[in-house]
Amino acid sequence: MGDSGVTIRDIEAGEYTAVGALTVEVYVGEGHVNPESPYVAELADTATRAASAEILVAVRENEVIGSVTVARPGTEFADIARAGELEFRMLVVGKRGRGLGVGSALVREVIEIARAESWHAVVLTTMPTMQDARRLYDRLGFVHVPERDWLTMAGTPLTVMRLPVGE
């Protein structure tokens, strides 16, 4: 990916702990998820995610600086994907990866997977507090689908966005 020295690839088992820690650091540390929430355990449990979803990592100088979980419809981690849609979740970029285009590169890789596998669209859920991510999604052409928005068990409003890739 460009001159930033960042490589996007599938996760390796030895990276599960680092990805779990990074995901919790971003979601909890940046105020998106309450540290007392049961969701924190799910964010940290990369091994369980990897068993039923594809996890991509962004690596720079042998350090994992970003990650995204790719969930196909009908699998355990697909919350909102409908037939023909590829969903991604838990997009995170650590502080050392900010400003390098890591988030864009991870999402673009998901879009490429969707095209290669002939999905009609890529979908995601984001939170109102995730302003940087929202700007990224807007820039890449994702569109808010308000009729699909939903609430967490704690009542936090979630925003669904969709990008047609092969319709």
Report on the architecture of this protein.
31% of the residues lie in helices and 29% in strands. It has 167 residues and is α+β, with helices and mostly antiparallel strands. A hairpin with a 5-residue loop joins strand 7 and strand 8 (157-164). Helix 4 (102-116) packs across helix 5. The protein is globular and about 40 Å long. The model has no long low-confidence stretch (mean pLDDT 93).
Low-confidence stretches: none
Secondary-structure content class: alpha+beta
What proportion strand?
25-35%
Instruction: Specify Rg, calculated over alpha carbons.
Output: 15 Å
CATH superfamily: Gcn5-related N-acetyltransferase (GNAT)
The overall average pLDDT, rounded, is 93
SSE arrangement, N to C: EHHHEEEHEHEEE
Distance between the termini: 27 Å
Which CATH C-level class is it? Alpha Beta
Shape: globular
